[in-house]
Design goal:
This protein is 33% helix and 18% strand. By secondary structure, the protein is α/β, with parallel strands linked by helices. A five-stranded mixed sheet has the order 2-8-7-4-5. Strands 1-3-6 form a three-stranded mixed sheet, with no helix packed on it. The structure holds 2-acetamido-2-deoxy-beta-D-glucopyranose (4 copies). Keywords: Disulfide bond, Glycoprotein, Signal.
Length: 178
């Protein structure tokens, strides 16, 4: 009986920890918000109106959508450029061509530094430019202090917390935000 209980607790804890790890994994940020075709001219100041309300961490992704109407896929684009070229809207020496032609582009933010993105085709002048500041990953949440082995020390407590958390997360399909 007790062995079965222990197995149940361990399984639930593993599930909970896995869900927490998945939930804290890299986040995908849809540029301009969740609105469809978020990457468009004269829409917003992407840096002050959108990016300043988001937290970007190393490993996160940016996701640009501009696939409807179809012609937008050719008109707009996404390039990483340096600060000088960002300010002057120049695509003369881009650092990275992010556009793949389908109007849906992704880019992983691998370093803790400022990033500068612009659209080609002159649309940078119409506001299609974005700066993001990427931070190091936040420190992992500290473990609750406990004396001795958690499996023997506070058996019912762990069962309740781990079980409840895992069931709630599984049921709602929710990944907690970091
Ligand atoms: C967007 O906002 C930033 C921060 O306020 C400002 O420096 C920048 O000039 C603005 N960009 C445009 C295209 O208006
Ligand atoms: C950006 O690149 C251009 C061309 O290579 C260079 O002249 C300029 O100094 C660079 N700016 C920065 C901030 O690195
Ligand atoms: C960027 O890459 C896309 C897809 O490979 C390509 O169609 C496009 O011509 C490239 N743009 C530039 C300026 O190289
Ligand atoms: C970011 O890192 C991943 C994993 O190392 C790598 O596959 C990818 O090419 C990198 N992306 C950029 C834009 O450097």
């Amino acid at each position: 009986m007790e062995i079965l209980m222990k197995r149940f607790v361990i399984t639930t804890m593993v599930v909970t920890v896995s869900l927490l790890v998945i939930g804290c994994d890299a986040k995908r940020h849809t540029v301009g918000g969740t609105e469809y075709n978020g990457w468009a001219p004269n829409k917003m100041n992407y840096t002050s109106d959108w990016a300043s309300h988001e937290q970007f961490y190393v490993g996160d992704w940016l996701y640009w959508t501009y696939d409807e109407p179809r012609q937008n896929r050719q008109l707009f684009s996404v390039f990483e450029v340096n600060k000088t070229d960002y300010e002057s809207c120049s695509t003369d020496h881009t650092l990275y061509n992010i556009s793949r032609g389908g109007g849906r582009d992704v880019y992983q933010l691998n370093y803790s530094r400022p990033y500068y993105f612009i659209s080609g085709g002159g649309f940078c002048w119409q506001g299609m430019k974005l700066t993001v500041f990427v931070q190091e990953l936040p420190p992992a949440p500290s473990e609750a202090p406990s004396n001795g082995s958690p499996f023997s020390a506070s058996f019912p407590g762990i069962l309740t917390i781990a079980g409840a958390a895992a069931l709630v997360l599984l049921k709602l399909g929710v990944h907690p935000d970091c």
